[in-house]
Amino acid sequence: MTVEGRRVRVSNLEKVLYPETGTTKRDVLEYLQAAAPAMLPHCRDRAATRKRWPDGVEGQMFFQKDIGDGAPDWLELRTIQHSDHANRYPLVNDLPSLVWLGQLAALEVHVPQWRFGRGDEPRHPDRIVLDLDPGPGVSLIECADVARLVRDILDDMGLVAVPVTSGSKGIHVYAALDGAQSSDDVSRVARELARALEADHPNEIVSSMKRSKREGRVLIDWSQNNASKTTIAPYSLRGRARPTVAAPRTWRELGSRHLRQLEYSEVLERIARRGDPMATVAEATGRADGGDVSRDRLEIYRSKRDRRKTSEPIPDAVASAGSGVSAESDTGPVFVIQKHDASRLHYDFRVEHDGVLVSWALPKGVPTDSRQNRLAVPTEDHPMDYRFFSGTIPKGEYGAGTVEIWDTGSAAIEKWRDDEVIVTLTGADDGGLGGRRRYALFRTRNDPKKPQWMIHLMQDQGSDPSPGASRRGDSRASRRTAPRTSESSGGRTTSSKTSHAVAPMLATRGRSGELSALEPNDWAFEMKWDGMRAVIAVTGDGVRVTSRNGQDVTETYPELASLGAALGADGVVLDGEIVAFDARGAASFSRLQRRMNVTSDREIRELRRSIPVWFAAFDVLGLNGQDATALPYRDRRELLEEVVDEVAGVPIFAPPAFEGDAAAAERTSRELGCEGVMAKRLTSVYRPGTRTSDWLKFPHGTATEVIVVGWRVSESDPDGIASLLLAVPGESGLTYAGRVGTGFSNAERRRIRDRLARVERQTPPVDSVPPADRRDARWVTPKLVGDVSFREFTDEGRFRQPVWRGWRTDQSVDDVRAPEG
């Protein structure tokens, strides 16, 4: 799925996760997408602990804190240091992250009452929660009575309380805080509140965790305010027999004598009808976050500098919120780019945002050519006064070296997100920018050991840039104008034009058991699509489709002429597979066969309606005239995901790669009905026309290309064939490999007979044809390639139970390889 521009792999959509109601994973994902606007504000920037039920709620539950393996690169992570180890937690800050958790059957999401600040530093809690757990013999109605008592005390404290029916047995009562107290402080308040209520209502309420005291009472669990504790997130599903939800409610609802826990469909109806009853808590905690952000933004900056040794501006903690020199209030945000000759010469790119200068280091300088992106390394936020700084940082101090202002001026911010910034800079008349420049900075990876961001010079759009002003200003299109340089390829790109007729790179067939033995850090895994290999070049002149053997087949597939509408670049050369899908949604080579080699305009129009084709793009060979084949697979894959959009009505998609997860790729390939799995070495460059072990193919079944060397005459239909005679390459040339007599319709048998008659010859082109197969045989020049599936390839070099799959006009005789036994 493409979710808000992110690729999220999903599978097993029809798996039933709640057997009692028949609720499937598809239903769960649809709920999460619909509930996200209400749910995400209550999860934002909080460490998410998950409870997973991969086999449904009647199966085993997995409790997961650390993120583990297989998380997508774009997922935001934060680290919590425990006494003897550190865990990395995901943040559920956006819809793609929520959908990703749903795909893992992480039905329950639990979060603390505090949020992360910048980096891994936890803030003070921004809300308090009291968990009301009814003991044996206590109904939900009686639990609601206690919730109202809690509300009254919170009201007396000046806190607005909101109830949440937990989706399990009890009720949670939340109230927003101002972020001024620590978790220990809030826990003490919650404990005293619970004890006070117990003292006033000893027969109805208990604050002790001892089970022996819960009979006939409601436990007020105050401990979930502890910094190490979590509570089920509002709007999270529960892993119970039925798909209930931790549902925010109104106090009026809690007064109903028919109060009960709600299921997900009921919750969606309530959201649509009355919105989120807990929205006021989310808004209040957001305001508390704003105070924390401004208070903490310069902590890292200050920790790296000694005001006694450097002349750099070092504001104290009180003055860190903009330092009183922000230009944003009168002339708008500002920027500065500083040339920094330290241990290595680089440029520091700084833009004002939220009272500080958000900063990136540019090791290779400021981009001056829109065809080449450059590395941008995020650094700590700097104070506003730093835009005036130039001079020498003493030896031995952080950043020692000389700093000079390269350019400075105003900044017009179009977009500011955690993973992307678009800004137009207007520099000084004598500055290094030479006037006005528009830049996009975008995050590529979360791993701090690898480059995280790139910077790209965009095309300016006039004096008043605004989001969506043109397609080139689109957030994703901004990053797709050129192949990126790569550290592993020496940071080089070439300027030569990419030929449209690039011969595709070829894969070697992997051996049995080899797939699971591949080192997961070295390989990515893709689906092997049962279609026709093609290279597609999209330029200003249109679209050209070239088959594997170099034939121009553009007119055969006219629907592919629209691909340019889904590509965020002026010119692209893509490698991929033309596929046709059957009724089950699986790629079907037999259906595609009916589209291949058709030349009649009328027949093409008819088949286009009944058998539409798609292009599964899996590699980028060139972008805007730049050759991308020298880039490693990892970088080409990143370009692919950025250049290919999924646009309604345009038949192209970029299938996901399963980096480091061969088992998941193989499972998904079988579930989708794909032909097999492709393994591609992450560091491999693209070698046109070369068969290499950097790409390995692992087909699920036994299908292979064959060379047709003759046919046997049909006794029942003199215009058709009885079977085809096959050959494969041997040690000393072609060797006979048997005959295939199934997989044809009567009409196909006649069409094959007409085709073979044009290349008929008098003598057999292979030796060792058994007498039974030679009887009534007609021979042809060995130049036509077909495709068969088979049960076994025997030690004698014969196909056992072969079935005809169709012609391979996209391949030549030289491409055929003998199958393994």
From TrEMBL:
Cofactor: Mn(2+)
The reaction(s) this protein catalyses: ATP + (deoxyribonucleotide)n-3'-hydroxyl + 5'-phospho-(deoxyribonucleotide)m = (deoxyribonucleotide)n+m + AMP + diphosphate
Region (Disordered): 302-329, 458-502
Residue intervals of the ATP-dependent DNA ligase family profile domain: 606-698
Enzyme Commission identifier(s): 6.5.1.1
Molecular function per GO: ATP binding; DNA binding; DNA ligase (ATP) activity; DNA-directed DNA polymerase activity; exonuclease activity; metal ion binding
Keyword Chloroplast tagged: no
BP terms from Gene Ontology: DNA recombination; DNA repair
The entry's keywords: ATP-binding, DNA damage, DNA recombination, DNA repair, DNA-binding, DNA-directed DNA polymerase, Exonuclease, Hydrolase, Ligase, Manganese, Metal-binding, Multifunctional enzyme, Nuclease, Nucleotide-binding, Nucleotidyltransferase, Transferase
Biased composition (Low complexity): 317-329, 483-499
Family to which this protein belongs: In the N-terminal section; belongs to the LigD polymerase family.
Full protein name: DNA ligase (ATP)
Organism of derivation: Leucobacter tardus
